[in-house]
């Protein structure tokens, strides 16, 4: 019998440096007003996805999930 190994991974997606992040900016301002010394906040998203290979996962992410012009990602 052949078993396909499916792996479950989490993909963290955040705006690239220098890309406007209005939600992150608003949260930073609120935290600074609350007395916290916050330099930067970036708000992104986490996607859990199951794939058969890391190569397929990378292709899915780069071709369908992220916008490579404005987003970076990390696979966990």
CATH superfamily heading: Phosphoribosylformylglycinamidine synthase subunit PurS
Strand order of the largest sheet: 2-1-3
The beta-strand count equals 3
Give the end-to-end Cα distance, rounded to a whole number of Å: 30 Å
Given helix and strand content, the structural type is alpha+beta
**Percentage of residues in DSSP E strands:** 25-35%
Summed over residues and divided by their number, the pLDDT gives a mean of 94
At CATH level 2, the architecture is 2-Layer Sandwich
Low-confidence stretches: none
Describe the biggest sheet?
3 strands, antiparallel
The proportion of residues forming helix, as a percent range, comes to 25-40%
What is the third-level CATH name, the topology? Answer: Mth169, Chain: A
Draw up the topology in text.
Elements: E1 7-15, H1 22-33, E2 45-51, H2 54-65, E3 71-75
Antiparallel strand pairs: 1-2, 1-3
Report on this model:
It contains two helices and three strands; from the N terminus they run E-H-E-H-E. It has one domain (7-75): Mth169, Chain: A (2-Layer Sandwich). With 76 residues, it is an alpha+beta fold. A three-stranded antiparallel beta sheet has the order 2-1-3. The two termini are 30 Å apart.
């Amino acid at each position: 019998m052949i078993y396909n190994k499916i792996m479950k991974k989490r993909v963290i997606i955040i705006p690239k440096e220098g890309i406007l992040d209005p939600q992150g900016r608003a949260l930073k301002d609120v935290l600074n007003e609350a007395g916290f010394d916050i330099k930067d906040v970036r708000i992104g998203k986490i996607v859990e996805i199951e794939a058969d290979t890391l190569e397929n996962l990378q292709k899915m992410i780069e071709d369908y999930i992220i916008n490579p012009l404005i987003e970076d990602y990390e696979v966990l």
